[in-house]
Amino acid sequence: MVPDEVLAELDRALEPVDAARGAAYPGEPSTRQPVHTCYVPADAVVPGLVGSWGERALTALDDHGLPDLGLPGDLVEQVLPRVRAKLAAEPVEDLRVDSEDGYRGPPDREDDDVARAAAVLAAEPGLPAFWGTRAKSLEGPTRRRGVRSLDLFLGGLAGRGRAVVTLPKVTAVEQVAAFLPVLDALEQAHGLALDLELQVETPQAVLGADGAATLAAMLHAARGRVTGLHYGTYDYSASLGISAAHQASDHPAADHAKATMQVAVAGTGARAVDGSTNVLPVGSREQVQAAWRLHAGLVRRALERGFYQGWDLHPAQLVTRYTATYAFFRAALPAAGARLAAYTARVDGGVLDEPATARALAGVLLRGQDCGALDDAEVAAAAGVDRTALDALAGRPPR
């Protein structure tokens, strides 16, 4: 039998390791994650913006009709009414006002455009569930200009709860650490709680000069402030010398960067987020439908690989964002529900699920409920547990 003093020494040796791991890896977040982030340039923010995105998406769907997306007909019949309802009620889950690459105003107009965008949003009856702004990078030429725009935008929305600041083109751990006091000052000045997202758009963010994965160091340097790593499809591809015709979120180089992102965020409470496609559903019926097929395929591919959020750059992309997302969760419901019911009832079957798998099964059903793909009643019928029990299985706090 192992003596007590040996076990006590084992505990003493590993207690600091346990504490450090718990602080660095608190576990997966238990909050709702939006299915997308919609980027709107600061100079393009207009009154009624969110509602107009939904209206334009519905008009595109009515005008062009949904093409064959490779989905079973009965699944499309289940999904389309829900998509229409979503576009009418909550078309934008996460809004990011852009004063970086998407901004097209002249430099001497940026103050006015950013302040006006904030005033427009402040006058809206309600903001989306998630919202914020993308700043300029912390490189020397744009550093102070970026902070000034952040200050102006957040000042116009002072006291409006929680916002997100997206920091693009990060290249060094020191940039993240140096930005934390700026976030603190902005919070104090404007009465907002601020989350930080990092955009992965440079090779230096993925692999440092020392051969280490810089993203992991950036996350931990932020001391829990980072809630997401967002893949920047086109800047990252271009920085690797990939020709424009082949820059896409399903390129092997993109998969490498995003796999690194996934590993870096695992257990930290941050999330890995897919990028965008710049092939927009505009033009003729054939062009719109072709863009929809491309977008739906990329969304489905991302979901299958565990990326539950991506970028949308045009209102009509909401059609396939929600169609592909809803189809994914509805297709997952029967099997996930049956496996979870067997797990909770301790019924032996063809698949032996463990607690970690049960957590993942509950998580996929909760994601479906959060975005409107699934109803509480049908999930309870399939899984044999109510929402409270599902939250507990997934590690979420009670609602």
Quick recap:
With 399 residues, this protein is α/β, with parallel strands linked by helices.
- Provide the helix percentage: 40-55%
Q: What is the total tally of β strands?
A: 8
Major beta sheet summary: 8 strands, parallel
Helix-strand makeup class: alpha/beta
Instruction: State the end-to-end CA separation.
Output: 46 Å
Q: What is the correct CATH architecture of the largest domain?
A: Alpha-Beta Barrel
* Average pLDDT number: 95
Structural domain tally = 2
Describe this structure in words.
With 399 residues, the chain is of the alpha/beta class. It folds into 2 domains: 30-328, Phosphoenolpyruvate-binding domains (TIM Barrel), CATH 3.20.20.60; 332-394, no CATH class. The chain has 15 helices and 8 strands. It has helices spanning 4-24, 49-64, 73-89, 110-122, 143-155, 173-190, 203-206, 214-221, 233-239, 252-265, 285-304, 317-345, 355-371, 376-383, 387-394; strands at 36-41, 94-98, 130-134, 162-167, 193-200, 226-231, 271-273, 310-312. Strands 7-6-5-4-3-2-1-8 form an 8-stranded parallel sheet. α6 packs parallel to α8 (214-221).
Features:
globular; 2 domains; 8 strands; alpha/beta; 399 residues; 8-stranded parallel sheet
Question: What is the secondary structure topology, with strand pairs?
Answer:
Elements (H helix, E strand, L loop, with lengths): L3 H21 L11 E6 L7 H16 L8 H17 L4 E5 L11 H13 L7 E5 L8 H13 L6 E6 L5 H18 L2 E8 L2 H4 L7 H8 L4 E6 L1 H7 L12 H14 L5 E3 L11 H20 L5 E3 L4 H29 L9 H17 L4 H8 L3 H8 L5
Parallel strand pairs: 1-2, 1-8, 2-3, 3-4, 4-5, 5-6, 6-7
Helix pairs in contact: 2-3, 3-12, 4-5, 5-6, 6-8, 11-12, 12-13, 12-14, 13-15
